[in-house]
Specification:
CATH class of the largest domain in chain B: Alpha Beta
Number of domains of chain C: 2
CATH topology of the largest domain in chain C: Glutaredoxin
Largest sheet of chain C: 5 strands, mixed
Number of helices of chain B: 25
CATH superfamily of the largest domain in chain B: NADH-ubiquinone oxidoreductase 51kDa subunit
Number of domains of chain B: 5
Chains: A alpha+beta (244), B alpha/beta (618), C alpha+beta (162)
CATH architecture of the largest domain in chain C: 3-Layer(aba) Sandwich
Radius of gyration of chain B: 26 Å
Oligomer: heterotrimer
CATH topology of the largest domain in chain B: Rossmann fold
Distance between the termini of chain C: 21 Å
Largest interface: B-C, 61 and 47 residues
Strand content of chain C: 5-15%
Number of helices of chain C: 7
Number of strands of chain B: 19
Helix content of chain B: 25-40%
CATH class of the largest domain in chain C: Alpha Beta
CATH architecture of the largest domain in chain B: 3-Layer(aba) Sandwich
Largest sheet of chain B: 5 strands, mixed
């Protein structure tokens, strides 16, 4: 256990914990967009930056999602400097994805000036902020790595290989679930699941429950579950509600 | 078949035998076979020399050696006649017969091939009297022009691997680290971190498997010191790495070489094979029972992979994305294991320190920056090339005394150091003593050693735009402030150079730069503001001219200039033919031509083609 | 002549063997594959993913991250213009503009008959010779605008215009 101070409040934390998680357990608000408790931290959005001073007196700004706690660490989560940088960061995001409700909300909270920066791609409606939650979920939780970041730099996009190779995707929708800005839209209708990514869209057949007849899961996902568990496909013929 | 060496004693004996075998009265014609001189035809010069020497029947008295880089790139192809140390410059194949006849047969110099003093025009015979060389302190580069990089015997001739023998047999790992610490050596790649301390941290880190990495990614545009070292004297780098591996307790090493350096890859690969054959690398090095293997890995064309964590990601076969360094790579680096990464030049300094001692090394340079530094002096300077100078020398000395000043009677305007991470330094600071801390103090940094000179015809707003454009193409795209911030910076700079900027834009630049500096994930984004901020700081009037007057004082920014035909144009029509947009028409014999401003795309072709200064840029 | 899938697979297998099927050497593997095949066809990326048993997304991400790789066929002649600082200061932009005009293509593309590909390089490390144009690995230093046309002409098909 190490002793540290966050916003003037002393606390103890297990070694190896990140400052962000400790602060959250103390109900201290730190905005984030690219972090999730089920995933490894990534450090892309930089919103969780805080001011720290180590025991030896060295002070700087770090991303709290990736900074491990230290004995004698002093953390300030919302100084003037921190607030000024967070404002610019959210303003940059709002220029990238204008009219995005989630970002505008966060922008209001962080005191952003609307349209401070000119719109990036006028007319192009893209809500993807390249946070990597979807790609990391697909790799670390689902284990399929069906999507990834493609190209480098300003041309970077989240996509399936070659923009049309969906073979590894099991249409589970975890990516859509975890996306903070609604850039991946999932819709189930008439026995078909459609997943709309920033680059294109794909339809997947849904399987029907033997018992109640409702369309409950993509056929691909059943095939995947069967393969992973070693059970036959028939073991998944009933939906979650109809199972014993 | 190379002899396997099992002790420093055997190494010493071999060196003695190599030295005694070589006839010290034999003339060696050392021709630079570095990438630059090869482009200027030195390969053909080497062939022609060998043929002519054979034809003259003096092959038993003269050896033609394809050597490493001579460093005076402006004057390539370079030829050195040893032992007299005669320097011939700008040698072409047609010069070979005269060179062979006069110098090698008759023992006379060929005047016209000697270097002419810039001021007096007097021809200088000896290389060490040419000002470009005389004022340098060539410790690392000394042997490059004397050895054939393909030959390990040439390296051994000059006491190669003697430091390794000493480190393995006369010192223990702790002593080696203390020596490197005491020398004050700081990283030459840009970080400037104390090398000995880094080694110590890696040695002390938890874990049995540790790695040594040599960063030869050298992405800074304008920098080619590492290319030169790796091409010309790869063994000096290997020797440093092996000593480091022994001190740290690592058994595996990597040299990461840029994709754009094929000759460096070739020469390093060959050096590894030969060193392994001789027991100087690989298993049971020099019979000490210490194993260390080195693998070469090529980059894929990504500047960001010069950043240590991005480089390591690339070594793991992943995209070259940096990661947070709150836990240092000396603790968790390649494959999450303790890794010591150093730049090529840093590694090459190690054998010098071990051979001559920390006291000697720390006697060179300034209080905070010890030793020498190799700079690539390029741009608007007479003597472009690689210069090695002691830390603490002034910018003025480097640019004017070694560099020979600005060509074409133009005025010095600025020098840029540190690559895209560094800044511009104006003429008022020419007497700055070059070292890590001084350069940082004025807003720039040492970086890898690129030193780019600019004159009055370069626009400092355009230069700021250049660096942001470069970084825009190279950034990895992972983190928000760098990716989105660089885009916005670029958009603003384009508007300013197009004459559409406002003072509010300048304020926005300053806000963006502040956030990028603080919030970016890695050094690329954090230091991207440096060129822009130093340009604003030292050349504010130029920015204000662009923004408030829509004028480019240096006459560079296309949208703000026009090309005009002066009255002295005699109508020769060269520009008419050359103009890609047929915007210039002939108006008859001996009449000035006419330029249509609407058709003109301001490509500058007419200006370059005109031999009579009849085109004026306004 | 287009190489068929079976040939690509064979070549890829050979390259992977050379690298001991080590996925950490992915960048080197892709470089050798591009060297042998002229570019990186999608069959090659698929083959690497299959034989190394690594996700296709990883192969594709790496192949699209590094500038050295091309997923589309390259022209017969490859032109690289150095845009490093030293070259820029000596007028590399004008040389690039001149090449673009001469070949009628933008950097990162090839002409439709695949005679020429044009690409910019962020410093070749031969700064004393700037500005530099490299055609098929041959360095042309101290480039002047007038020289662009004649050098490129020498690579064009006789009687042909792009």
């Amino acid at each position: 256990m190490v002793k540290l101070t966050i916003d003037g409040r002393q606390t103890e934390a297990k070694e190896g914990m990140m400052v962000l998680d400790v602060a959250r357990s103390m109900n201290i608000y730190i905005p984030t967009l690219c972090t999730h408790e089920a995933l490894s931290p990534y450090g892309a959005c930089r919103l969780c930056m805080v001011e720290i001073a180590t025991k030896s007196g060295r002070s700087r700004m770090v991303t709290s999602c990736l900074y491990p706690v230290e004995e004698g660490l002093t953390v300030q989560t919302n100084t003037q400097k921190v607030a000024a940088h967070r404002k610019i960061l959210i303003e940059l995001l709002m220029a990238r994805c204008p009219n995005n409700a989630v970002l505008m909300d966060l922008g209001r909270r962080l005191g952003a000036t609307p349209a401070f920066f000119p719109e990036e791609n006028p007319g192009k409606n893209n809500n993807c902020i390249l946070c990597g939650l979807c790609t990391r979920t697909c790799a670390e939780v689902v284990g399929q790595s069906a999507i990834s970041f493609v190209s480098r730099g300003i041309g970077r996009e989240m996509a399936v290989p070659f923009f049309d190779h969906w073979d590894a995707c099991i249409a589970c929708g975890s990516c859509s679930y975890v996306c903070p800005t609604g850039a991946i839209i999932l819709e189930d209708k008439d026995g078909v699941r459609s997943i709309k990514m920033p680059h294109n869209e794909k339809q997947f057949e849904l399987a029907q429950c033997e018992q109640c007849g409702s369309y409950w899961i993509p056929k691909r996902q059943i095939a995947w579950m069967a393969q992973k568990s070693g059970l036959p496909v028939e073991a998944f013929d009933k939906c979650m509600d109809c199972r014993d | 078949m190379l002899k396997r060496l099992n002790s420093p004693h055997e190494l010493e004996d071999l060196k003695k035998s190599i030295r005694s075998c070589r006839d010290l009265n034999k003339t060696v014609v050392s021709v630079c076979a570095g990438t630059g001189c090869i482009t200027l035809g030195s390969g053909e010069v080497i062939e022609a020399l060998r043929k002519e020497i054979d034809a003259q029947g003096i092959g038993h008295k003269v050896e033609v050696r394809a050597s490493g880089c001579h460093g005076f790139c402006e004057r390539g192809a370079l030829v050195n006649i040893l032992p007299q140390n005669i320097l011939y410059q700008r040698v072409k194949t047609q010069d070979v017969p005269e060179l062979v006849a006069k110098t090698l047969v008759e023992g006379q110099v060929v005047e016209r091939l000697l270097y002419p003093d810039i001021v007096t025009g007097k021809r200088i015979t000896r290389e060490d009297e040419v000002p470009f060389y005389a004022r340098q302190k060539r410790l690392l580069l000394e042997h490059s022009s004397r050895i054939d990089p393909q030959s390990i015997e040439d390296y051994l001739y000059f006491d190669g691997y003697k430091a390794l023998g000493k480190a393995l047999y006369a010192m223990d790992p702790q002593q080696i680290i203390e020596e490197v610490k005491a020398s004050g050596l700081r990283g030459r790649g840009g970080g400037g971190f104390l090398t000995g301390k880094k080694w110590e941290n890696t040695r002390d880190a938890h874990g049995d498997v540790k790695y040594i990495i040599c960063n030869c990614d050298e992405g800074d545009p304008g920098a080619y010191m590492d290319r030169s070292l790796m091409e010309s004297n790869p063994h000096s780098v290997l020797e440093g790495m092996i000593i480091g591996a022994f001190a740290i307790g690592a058994h595996e090493g990597y040299i990461y070489i840029r994709n754009e350096y094929p000759l460096a890859v070739k020469n390093a690969t060959n050096a590894i094979i030969k060193a392994e054959e001789m027991g100087l690398l690989g298993d049971n090095i020099l019979g000490k029972g210490f194993n260390f293997h080195i693998q070469i890995s090529r980059g894929g064309g990504a500047f960001v992979c010069g950043e240590s964590t991005a480089l390591m990601a690339s070594l793991e076969g992943k995209v070259g994305e940096p990661r947070a360094k709150y836990v240092h790579t000396s603790e968790k680096g390649l494959w999450e294991r303790p890794s010591n990464l150093n730049n090529v030049e840093t590694w090459a300094n190690v054998p010098l320190i071990i051979n001559n001692g920390a006291k000697w090394y720390s006697g060179i340079g300034t209080a905070g920056s010890k030793g020498t530094k190799i700079f690539s002096l390029v741009g608007k300077v007479r003597n472009t090339g690689l210069v090695e100078v002691p830390m603490g020398i002034t910018l003025r000395e480097i640019i004017f005394e070694i560099g020979g000043g600005i060509p074409g009677n133009k005025r010095f305007k600025a020098v840029q150091t540190g690559g895209p991470s560094g800044g511009f330094i104006p003429d008022t600071l020419l007497d700055l003593q070059v070292d890590f801390d001084e350069l940082t103090r004025v807003g720039s940094m040492m970086g890898s050693g690129a030193m780019i000179v600019m004159d009055e015809s370069n626009c400092m707003v355009d230069m700021a735009k250049y660096f942001i454009t470069f970084l825009l193409d190279e950034l990895c795209g992972k983190c928000l402030p760098c990716r989105e911030g660089m885009k916005q910076l670029h958009t603003i700079l384009i508007r300013i150079t197009n004459g559409e900027g406002t003072m509010a834009d300048v304020q926005m630049i300053e806000d963006l730069c502040s956030t990028m500096k603080t919030a970016s994930l890695c050094g690329l984004g954090q230091s991207a503001p440096n060129p822009v901020l130093t340009s604003l700081r030292y050349f504010r009037e130029e920015w204000e001219a662009h923004v408030l007057e829509k004028r480019c004082p240096a006459k560079v920014c296309k949208a703000l200039i026009t090309y005009n035909i002066s009255e002295k144009c005699p109508g020769c029509g060269l520009c008419v033919k050359a103009c890609p947009e047929t915007a210039i028409v002939s108006k008859g014999k001996k009449q000035p031509v006419e330029l249509d401003q609407i058709k003109c795309i301001r490509c500058g072709t007419c200006y370059d083609v005109c031999k009579l200064d009849a085109i004026v840029v306004k | 002549m287009k190489i068929d899938e079976a040939q690509i697979k064979t070549k890829v297998r050979g390259i992977l063997q050379k690298f001991n099927n080590n996925s950490a050497m992915l960048v080197g593997i892709l470089q050798d594959a591009q060297s042998e095949l002229g570019y990186l066809p999608h069959e090659a990326l698929h083959a690497i993913h299959e034989y190394l048993d690594i996700p296709l997304t990883r192969v594709y991400s790496v192949a699209t991250f590094f500038k050295a790789f091309s997923l589309v066929p390259l022209g017969k002649h490859q032109v690289h213009i150095c845009m490093g600082t030293a070259c820029h200061v000596r007028g590399a932009e004008k040389i690039l503009d001149s090449v673009k005009r001469e070949l009628c293509i933008e950097p990162g593309t090839s002409d439709k008959d695949l005679n020429f590909s044009l690409e910019t390089v962020n410093c070749l490390g031969a700064c004393a010779l700037g500005p530099i144009m490299v055609v098929d690995g041959k360095y042309h230093g101290n480039m002047k605008i007038e020289g662009v046309k004649s050098i490129l002409e020498s690579y064009k098909e006789p009687g042909g215009k792009i």
